[in-house]
Structure formats: structure tokens, C-alpha cells
Design a protein that fits this description.
The complex is a heterodimer of chains A (191) and B (183). By secondary structure, chain A is of the alpha+beta class. Chain A is built from four helices and seven strands. Chain A has a single domain, classed as Nuclear Transport Factor 2, Chain: A, CATH 3.10.450.50. Chain B has 183 residues and is of the alpha+beta class. In chain B, strands 1, 2, 3, 4, 5, 6 and 7 form a seven-stranded mixed sheet that branches. Classes of the chains: A alpha+beta (191), B alpha+beta (183). The interface between A and B is large, with 49 and 33 residues.
Chain lengths: 191, 183
């Protein structure tokens, strides 16, 4: 009798422990991560590096790809529609080259990406971010400037530091295209 | 015997931090400095003060000169190397007081063995003087700075700041539309 009672108590204790552990895991997965000042700085640095890597297309695009996690992705939203994802190191490096063979052929070559008003918010498992994109040097003209929407990001902390889990380039509603780094072949020149 | 070995080991453990500190600089060279969050913020502040100092000519150029280490140098293709207090003050006097022109973005800071390195875009905008017409003109004279920062007894300073003008590279034959959206 005593053995049976002991067994029942033990089973209840195990079940209670399992429920508590599950509750704690659930709470941890839904709780926002606590960001230190160094985390904010590292995320700011990640976003600043993005501009250099996309503008210079170094290492055949792989320096850009290495700003992302192994399964990280980039995509673009045009007029509310999200396009195909460039996911994984190879596809991200290809995206950094504009899907060209080499960095020399990148369509936006000559553009400077200015990333301003960077907001970082703690989130479960990492942080979200949004930042304006202003581009200069468009259509082959050093002084042409254009607001090109914003980025919506998710950052995660990896053993190598903070990385993009995802980055979505969002244009303003009604803005379906952006200017490029080269002068359009058929379009009239800007005045 | 065993006690003597323990004494030697104990003495070595006590002395090792001191021995490490006595190592020649070359032995420590190459090891990046560890930057704290405050270091990053102070370097960011140094970089933004540069714009204010040069655009306003604050303190008759003294503010600009104070941003450089005693042996600090500013380098540009057009001006060459400018070093020393008096030369830096002369450069820092600027052309018009309260003339906002240099806007800096995308500031990357990295630890180095001698302090930190940095690079930052500079966008130059010609804004009309107060009272004149509205609007302004983006110039083609922007580019980026490449920096060496040094932590001195009076805070982080420029050991070296080089201005690299932007280059418009327009690939001719390769100027075709790509299948992926621009990032």
C-alpha cells in the first residue's frame, strides 16, 4: 500500500515538474529578450556595415551574405506584395551581385545607401528593427537623391555576433520601383 | 621536494600578470583592444562633433583641432596632410558660422590593436543661408572618412582622419536591369 502511494506521489511530482518546465519554456519563448547597451551598439554596427557591403559588393557578395544567419533571408515588398526570398549564403551573395556573375556588373553600382533613423526593439529570441533608406548617386548622377522606403529587420544573436535573420525592403504604398545606379538607356535625362 | 614545486608554481601564478604587463609592445601588438559600450558611444560622439566643429568653425577653429590627438593628422586628396595644432585650427575655422553641410551616416567602428578604426559616409548638402529661399542642393563632393581613433587622457581622438571622395562608377555595357529588386 505504502509503495503504491509513494509511486503515485512520485508520478504527480514528475507530472507537476514537467508542466512547470513547459510553462517556463513557453514564457521564455514569448518574453522579449533583454538588450544590453552593447547589444544595441552591435546591432547599429551590423546595420551600418550593411551599407558598405551592398555598396561595394566585396568578396563577390559573400561579405554581404555573412551579415545574415545561415538561414537568413532578404526580400523586397513592392506595393504591399512581398517578393521571392533570397535565403541562405549562396542566394544572398547572388542577390548582392544583383544576380550578375561579378560585382562589376551590379545594377546599383555607384549608389550610396544612407540608413537613418534606426529603431531597435527587443523581441522574443532577438530584436526587431526598422530604418529609413535614402539613396544618392542615382541614374549615374552624383547629386540625385531618392527616398526608397525602409527596411524591416529581425536580428538574432549568434556565436559570431548579431546577424540579420531577415531583412525586408519595403517601399511606400504606390511606390513600385526605385531608380538605379546607372543612367537609364531610354528614359529622359533628369533635369 | 613537492613543497618546493608548489612554491614555484605559486610564485609563477602571482607573478604572471606582472610578467604579462612587462611584455614588449610588439608581443601585445596585433591583439585588438576591447571596446566597451561607452567607448563606442564616445567614438560616435567624436565623429558627430567633427561635423559641428567644421561646419560652425566653433571656438575659432579650436574645437576642430581639439578633436585630434596631439600627433593627429587630417588627410585629403585636395588638401594633403594637415597636422599640428595651428594648421588644424586654421582648417577648423570654416567658411561660414552655423552652416550645416556635412551629414554623417553608416558609422562602422572596429577595435584595433592601437585603439579603433572607423569608416563613415559623409553627405554634403549646400543649404541656403537663413532668410534666403527654401531648399538646398545635394552636392557631389561627399564621400567617406576612414579613421584611426586613439584613446588619450582627454578621451577618444582622431589619430588620423582621411577623406575619400565618392566615385561614380557607371558600368556601361553591364547597365542592364537585374532580375532581383534593388536593395
Amino acid at each position: 500500500m505504502l509503495t503504491r502511494l509513494t509511486f503515485a506521489v512520485a508520478m504527480v511530482a514528475v507530472a507537476f515538474g514537467a508542466v512547470r518546465a513547459q510553462e517556463q519554456r513557453t514564457a521564455a519563448s514569448t518574453a522579449n529578450m533583454v538588450l544590453t547597451p552593447q547589444d544595441y551598439i552591435d546591432i547599429q554596427q551590423l546595420v551600418a556595415r550593411y551599407a558598405y557591403e551592398i555598396d561595394n559588393c566585396t568578396n563577390n557578395g559573400y561579405d554581404y551574405a555573412d551579415l545574415y544567419t545561415a538561414d537568413g533571408w532578404f526580400s523586397a515588398s513592392r506595393d504591399g506584395r512581398v517578393g521571392n526570398k533570397s535565403q541562405g549564403r549562396e542566394k544572398l551573395a547572388a542577390a548582392a551581385r544583383g544576380n550578375m556573375k561579378t560585382c562589376d556588373e551590379v545594377p546599383w553600382k555607384g549608389i550610396s545607401h544612407l540608413l537613418v533613423n534606426h529603431v531597435i526593439t527587443p523581441a522574443p529570441g532577438g530584436a526587431t528593427g526598422k530604418v529609413y533608406l535614402v539613396a544618392i548617386g542615382l541614374d549615374g548622377e552624383p547629386t540625385k537623391v531618392e527616398a526608397q522606403g525602409h527596411y524591416e529587420d529581425f536580428y538574432v544573436k549568434t556565436p559570431q555576433g548579431w546577424r540579420f535573420q531577415s531583412r525586408l525592403h519595403v517601399l511606400a504604398p504606390g511606390q513600385a520601383a526605385v531608380s538605379r545606379g546607372t543612367r537609364p538607356a531610354t528614359a529622359p535625362q533628369n533635369k | 621536494m613537492c613543497r618546493r614545486i608548489l612554491q614555484v608554481v605559486f610564485a609563477f601564478l602571482i607573478a604572471s600578470p606582472w610578467l604579462a604587463a612587462q611584455a614588449p609592445p610588439d608581443a601585445r601588438k596585433g591583439r585588438p583592444m576591447t571596446l566597451t559600450a561607452a567607448d563606442y558611444i564616445e567614438i560616435q560622439q567624436l565623429a558627430v562633433r567633427y561635423s559641428y566643429a567644421l561646419d560652425t568653425g566653433a571656438a575659432n577653429g579650436e574645437m576642430f583641432a581639439s578633436l585630434f590627438a596631439p600627433d593627429g593628422v587630417f588627410v585629403s586628396a585636395t588638401r594633403g596632410s594637415i597636422a599640428g595644432h595651428d594648421q588644424l585650427v586654421a582648417l577648423g575655422r570654416g567658411r561660414n558660422p552655423m552652416y550645416p553641410r556635412r551629414f554623417i551616416v553608416n558609422h562602422v567602428v572596429e577595435p584595433s590593436s592601437e585603439g579603433a578604426t572607423g569608416k563613415v559616409y559623409v553627405v554634403e548638402v549646400d543649404l541656403p543661408s537663413e532668410g534666403e529661399k527654401l531648399g538646398g542642393q545635394l552636392t557631389s563632393t561627399g564621400g567617406r572618412y576612414e579613421d584611426l581613433y586613439e584613446k588619450t587622457s582627454t578621451g577618444w581622438k582622431f589619430k588620423r582622419r582621411a577623406f575619400i571622395p565618392s566615385k561614380m562608377a557607371v558600368p556601361g555595357a553591364a547597365a542592364r536591369q537585374a532580375s532581383t529588386p534593388q536593395q
